[in-house]
Amino acid sequence: AAEDGLNAWLRYARLPPDIAKQATVPLNIVALNTTETSPVYVAGQELQKGIKGILDRSLNITHEASEGSSVVVGTIAAFNNSGISIGTPELEQDGFWLSIKGDTVEIVGQNERGALYGAFEYLSMLAQANFTEVAYATNPSAAIRWINQWDNMDGTIERGYAGPSIFFKGNAPVSNVTRVAEYARLLASIRVNGIVINNVNANAQILSDANMAGIARIADAMRPWGVKVGISLNFASPQTFGGLNTFDPLDKSVIAWWTKITDKLYQHVPDLAGFLVKANSEGQPGPLTYGRTLSDGANLFAKAAKPHGGIVMFRAFVYDNQHLNERNWKDDRANAAVDFFRGLDEKFDDNVVVQVKYGPIDFQVREPPSPLFAHLKQTASAIELQVTQEYLGQQCHLVYLPPLWKTILDFDLRVDGEKSVIGTDILSGKRFNKKGLTGYAAVVNVGQNATWLGSHLAMSNLYGYGRLAWDPTVNEVEILEDWTRLTFGLDDTVRETITRMSMESWPAYENYTGNLGIQTLTDITGPHYGPNPQSMDNNAWGQWTRADAFSIGMDRTVKNGTGFAGQYPTEVAAVFEEIETTPDDLLLWFHHVPYTHVLKNGKTVIQHFYDAHYAGAETAATFPTQWAKLEGLIDKQRFDETAFRLTYQAGHAIVWRDSINQFYNSLSGIADAHDRVNNH
Ligand code: GCU
What we know:
By secondary structure, the chain is α/β, with parallel strands linked by helices. It contains 21 helices and 18 strands. It has helices spanning 2-7, 17-20, 39-55, 76-82, 112-127, 178-189, 209-222, 237-240, 252-268, 294-305, 336-341, 372-375, 402-409, 422-427, 459-470, 476-488, 492-513, 570-577, 587-590, 605-628, 636-668, and strands at residues 28-31, 60-62, 70-75, 96-101, 104-109, 134-138, 144-148, 168-169, 172-173, 194-196, 228-233, 274-277, 311-315, 352-357, 380-386, 439-443, 551-552, 593-594. A hairpin with a 2-residue loop joins strand 4 and strand 5 (104-109). Helix 15 (459-470) packs across helix 16 (476-488), helix 16 packs across helix 17 (492-513) and helix 17 (492-513) packs antiparallel against helix 20 (605-628). The two termini are 49 Å apart.
């Protein structure tokens, strides 16, 4: 039913009676807060609903500590006040302690939000028939675990593939916030604590009085779930919306205008998370328009938000798509972020976080990590990931993304010759001692579709995002297995099949859309969907392959190319500078080579292209047949809807395979050793 989609991994499906009877279930729920809109109160209700669903037991909720068989949820402070002794768990902001012993369960949050997270964790165990006794504390790897929605105020969503916005309709925030609250519930269960609800290509009208009241409505719906709301700002608002004749960030009237607007916003939403700003990128206005620096621009908002406790997520995705010229061998959009932010590291206010896309270009199927992470030593940084599959099949292709994200999060940048792993050292704030204001943002773009993302299987990416933001070391298969049990039940065949297909999916997609680090060979000026290798050159967007009749790839070396490799710390730069040490999967990202160049795997570049495209399409062709084995093991609606998408994917993979292989076959004139690619 549609509810299965809406509830995603929070279905609380009834366990089979013989399994359910092995559970030791407390008799009461005690939620140590009486305020109905508090996360702890909500946690009590969620526990009641979950235990009823999973185990068919109806528990009462009280709000006073009581002895005996109960599950008690509350903050450390509430536990202490109620006289229940809990030792002193070591908890950081949003962390929780979970103890399950016989029929006594204690869920202790460092704050209200942490307590709610602990309740979801307990329910996740029950739903997976995990009845073990545990006692442990867990804390987030980073304080910022946000979502970005690219929702426009007219209800459309930029790069959204699941119907209209749940946040905006008719140029205003929605009045019915049911779906908003349901989304917040899902987000709370994966420990997301903030969301920016409007597009980074922002409409200044969001700042009208009526719209501020609408944002407050949305914030009210999400607050009980511990999710704070933030908004994207348009840099030119003082002029286009405020009627000033300038938006120069150093102009007194501009500063006064933003201060007043920010104060007003905080009157409407006292706990507004803060602002997200896309400036001087892809035609958006910004401080460079007035010859000011990016830090001047970011600090303008930071100063206005500071008295209210707000933060500014300032995007590093700054580049000039008007002046990139492929005829200049040294021109390279990949250089832009470090070029723009170099020299500003000490200039940002302490409530500014620079939000950096995982790779230097734009959410491609394979990119090296952004070198900017190594340059921001004083400035707080956050990584930007994409759950919405813009370049990755737009939810019509199954592509499980945590393995891709892990290539970035696990990467050791060796800053100053010391261990600097992006997830555990840099985004955690430990490496540069920035604990408190670092973390994660993911562009998600859910819509009104009953599956949220447009595809049931795509939801593992949203779930996986939350899990990795909490703990970037968690294993991607483990994430998938948990998600599958929660979403589709405990059947082994279901879990094994979905896990196998999902783990095969990103490598397959890379194989049929763009391998060896050449990027996703899609339609670069259009919707970013489907094969279009010819559009990848001679475009002003700076996403180039430099493919000609003899050779291909971007020479990003220092000695002969764009110099991008030199933006990495010395040890990493040395690896990428040389063809011999660059891994095959990034070869064409860093080097320009003949099609006949022999890879480490023994094949020529062109033969690898041919073979990989066949291999990728072959894998995709197995998906519908793998899935068919699940008929009857999961409900018909989700079975059918997924079968439809996987069948489409198998066909589209062939389209990809043949378009790309034909294209390079004609361009290079080199025959396929296995005679599959015809150049008629
Ligand atoms: C990509 C995407 C745009 C988006 C931009 C951004 O270029 O295609 O739709 O606005 O990234 O992240 O700002």
